[in-house]
Structures are given as C-alpha cells and as structure tokens.
Specification:
Blueprint: H1 8-24, H2 28-31, H3 33-47, E1 77-79, E2 85-87, H4 88-91, H5 95-107, E3 111-112, E4 125-134, E5 137-138, E6 149-152, H6 160-166, E7 174-180, E8 194-206, H7 212-218, H8 224-248, E9 252-254, H9 259-284, H10 292-295, H11 301-328, H12 335-344, H13 349-359, H14 361-380, E10 382-384
Parallel strand pairs: 2-10
Antiparallel strand pairs: 1-9, 3-8, 4-5, 4-6, 4-8, 7-8
Helix pairs in contact: 3-13, 3-14, 9-11, 11-14, 12-14, 13-14
Length: about 375
C-alpha cells in the first residue's frame, strides 16, 4: 500500500509500534554502546548516508581522542568490581530456548521434498501456482507468481477453503477450489461472488534432520553437540553482560557529574529524536505528529526535556563507571587500537574515516573503550555455581 493511502490513525499505529520497538532499545546506548554504535555506523557508512555530516551537534564534544569524558576527576566515580558476583546457573538459557533456536535455524533451511508420496497436511508450508476466475472471467491472474507462491496451510493467505483444498494432495497434483467472498469484501470486484481457482501443488516443504552432516554443511561447527553448546555459550555471554550492566550502578558511586558533557549528550539525544520525527514525516506524511515530544510519548515540552536530561545523566553515570573499570584494569585505547576495533566490526578503512568525520574521533573511541571495559568485567567478575 502506498504511504499516501494510509489513514492517519493507521499511520500513528504503525509509528507507535515502531517507536515501541525503538523504546526497547533505548537502554542499548547505556547497556551495550559497544555493539550498537559500530553497527549503526556500519549501516550509515555502507549506505553512503552521512546523516550527521552537516549537523551542528558535536558527538565528540567533551570527549578525549581516547574516548574518556573530559572533566571527570579521580574520586568522581568508584566501582566495587569485587562485589560483582553472579550465579552461572541463572545465566544459562532454558532448554526450551535452545531448542527453539535450533528449530528456527532448521526452518530457515526448509526445502521442497522429492518424496512423491508425501501429502500436504495442516500447518505445512507449501508452494502453489494458480489462476482464478469469477463468472468465467480471469480475476487477479497476476497472483499466480512465476515459480509458484509459498504459503502455510491454515494461515488463510487466500481463504480457509483454499487451504483446506490443498490438504491431502501430493506434489504435482492439480485441482479446482471454489472460494466464496463475503458481501462486504473490500474488493468490489469479488464482493458477494464466488471465484474458481485452478491450483497446482508445486511442492511441500520439509524441515531437514538435525545431524552432524547438516551442521557441518550449514554452520561453522562440526557436530550437533558443538552447535548446541555454541547457542548455550552465546546466551550465557549475553546474559552475563546484561547482568553486569544492570548491577554496575548498584556497586558504584558517582560523586560528581560532568555537567557540560551531560548538556551535550542531551542535545545529541534530542537531535536523534528530531531526525526520527523527520523520517516519520517523510514516510507517513507531515500530519503524523505535531511535535517531537508528542512522537516520544510526552504531553508537553517540559516533560520531554526532563526525560532527555534524565536519560543523559543516567547514561553518563554508566559511561563513567565503565571508564573507571577501564582505567583500573590498565587497558589502553590508542588510535590504532580504536581503528582495529572497528575493522573487527567489518568496517573498511574508508568507512572508519567517514565515521570519524561524521561523529568525531572521541565518540568512536568511547565505544571501543566501553567494549574493552565490558570484556574485562566478563572475564573478571565472580561466577558462582
């Protein structure tokens, strides 16, 4: 559907849903900047869209070239690293989660079965080709996609009658099915009428068997056991990092804040919201939201401004805590190391240069610094069984 044909209420629903998804990520910059920022920069650089090139917002203001916040002195923040302790059993994923991930991966490798005796059943994914007619006149023949169209039986992509007619057929079977449309069907050409579909079942998808041969051919692992363990390890690492991030402030004390840095970070966040609003207007139309604070879910400018300030202050505290860990651990973050960090994220030399030009050296270095600090904590916090 073209954007201009979407109703205002639906525009808002779509935008709100998108905003909800983005709200789930609001903590990313505080919890996992080291992952979010490089990914964002890669996307921007790869697309050749230097969105912030001409902005007056300086992402690196009050940051050193090594990624440290200017104006933070010894004693402004302390972290009791020894107090960070977590139970391994609480960090491991549930068996159901692991099996669900495996099933999802297998679903991604479904293929059309060559078993001539296999019959389609409820819930199967199938491929069909078809033509349709109403009163003998071709109707929506374009829906018969070249090479067939994938659908799942019982999801009623066309209708319940259509899906039911597929059940019991084998690959290569051709058959007819009548579909009666309701009087209030939104398409006046078929409202209250019956369409006849001439259908060919092109194939039935099956899920591959999980075995060592399949794993070796489709993953970087050699055996099922290795692959399953990799999923467990991935969840464990992710959960540990999340637990550390959540517990860091509880075991830290921020005694003084770099207010100028917070002021600038507040401006950065507002700039991001404003650009988000512009992107909504470009896609959904200028009547979607009247203001940036309305888009953010606030009733007035003052509440919105307070949210930005609170978020900037909270994220600054987190940045200070990681910076303390970084310094206490004796890590380094030279320009070459920062560039290598982004190279490891898959960025080319040109991508890195463009990102530095757009965001500044300090902003990029801060992400590398925080990543190193988090990696250090992952390796050094106390893990109990």
């Amino acid at each position: 559907m073209a954007a201009e044909n979407i109703s205002k209420s639906k525009k808002k629903r779509l935008a709100i849903e998108k905003a909800r998804q983005e709200q789930k990520q609001k903590k990313v910059m505080a919890i996992a900047w080291a992952v979010f920022i490089p990914t964002l920069i890669v996307v921007i650089a790869a697309a050749g869209i230097m969105f912030y090139r001409s902005t007056l917002i300086d992402y690196s203001r009050y940051l050193t070239d090594a990624g440290a916040i200017k104006g933070v002195n010894s004693g402004d923040v302390t972290v009791d690293i020894d107090a960070l302790s977590f139970s391994r059993s609480e960090l491991l994923p549930e068996d159901e989660t692991v099996e669900s991930d495996i099933e999802y991966m297998l679903k991604g490798h479904e293929y059309i079965s060559e078993d001539a005796g296999l019959k389609a059943d409820h819930g199967d994914k199938v491929n069909v080709s078809y033509t349709s007619s109403i009163d003998g006149v071709s109707y929506n023949e374009a829906l018969a996609a070249d090479g067939g169209e994938d659908m799942v039986i019982d999801e009623e992509k066309i209708s319940a009658e259509f899906d039911s007619a597929i059940v019991g057929h084998k690959k290569g079977d051709s058959f007819s099915v009548k579909v009666a449309f309701a009087d209030d069907d939104p398409d006046p050409a078929r409202a209250g009428k019956t369409a006849v579909y001439e259908v060919t079942l092109e194939g039935i998808y099956v899920t591959p068997e999980l075995n060592d041969e399949f794993v070796a051919a489709n993953t970087e692992y050699a055996t099922v056991a290795e692959y399953r363990q990799s999923i467990i390890d991935s969840y464990y690492d992710r959960n540990l990092r999340s637990a550390i991030s959540s517990s860091l402030s509880e075991n830290s004390a921020v005694n003084a804040y770099p207010e100028k840095y917070i002021d600038n970070l507040t401006k950065v966040y507002n700039d991001q919201y404003e650009k988000q609003l512009e992107s909504y207007k470009q896609y959904f139309g200028s009547d979607l939201y009247g203001s940036v604070y309305e888009m953010a879910g606030y009733t007035d400018q003052a509440s919105y401004d307070a949210m930005l300030r609170d978020r900037a202050r909270e994220d600054t505290a987190y940045a200070m805590e990681l910076e303390y860990v970084f310094k206490q651990s004796g890590l380094t973050n030279t320009e070459d190391e920062v560039r290598q960090y982004y190279a490891d994220q898959g960025m080319s030399t040109d991508d890195i240069d463009s990102a530095v030009e757009a965001y500044g050296r300090g902003y990029l270095a801060q992400a590398a610094l925080q990543s190193k600090a988090m990696d250090y904590l992952v390796e050094n916090v106390t893990i109990t069984d």
